[in-house]
Model the fold of this input.
Amino acid sequence: MSAPSRRKEPTVDTKTPPPAVVTLTAGHFRALVGPVVPLALNDRYNSTPILQAVYVRSSGPYLTATATDRYRMGVKRLRTAETPPAGISAVMPLTTVKRILTAFKVSRSHNPELRLTFGPDTVKVESGFAFADGGEAALTLPLVTDKYPPVDRLIREAMGREVAAESFAVNPAFLGDFRHAQQMGEPLVIKSTGRTHSVVVHVGEDFIGLIQPVRFEGDDERVAALDTGWADLLDAPAEEKAA
Done:
């Protein structure tokens, strides 16, 4: 008589973490990614896909979104109604981010709640309403599976340097993209840590970024020369005129 066969237990993949789920409104998603999308690499040749993306992760009570194009970077933090689960770490291509923003628009009367389920290579976005064509309001979109570079340390290093009083130069087009982080008239605060070091950019309490300075060839005398002629052109103060 043969021995009874043993039931084969299903194998468990211990290398693949379970999906992480976070719930937030479409408005909150837009507030999270909107400030950093303009800072991601915009390259039609798709030469560096990892930088043509927004890196979303959980950190304590916050969700954070990070993007960089090597010349500037930004990190936006958002405190959600419920503390997000630990372990969210997803590189979302710009095409995925923009698809979500387009599909789940926000208006004064419409701000749907979104349920984002992050898997190893996709994110599923579900909502409680139906699309205009009657289809279910759910999307499954791709993620970038490569690891995002550890760019946060660049901000930590810049924050550790002393504020410098010397002049610095930046590309005004690059600096202008930080306006997308502004809310309710918040000022943009710039801190220089030296002419050759990254410039720290703060917008409100929940956005911090960096911008690389532009090399201004020449010495201090050339920088000082930028003021030449302006004193004669500008109207003098009243007390100076009376002297």
Remarks:
- The chain has a mean pLDDT of 86.
- The longest strand covers residues 122-130.
- Residues 94-103 form the longest helix (10 residues).
- Helices lie at 26-33, 94-103, 152-159, 172-176, 220-224, 230-233, 238-242.
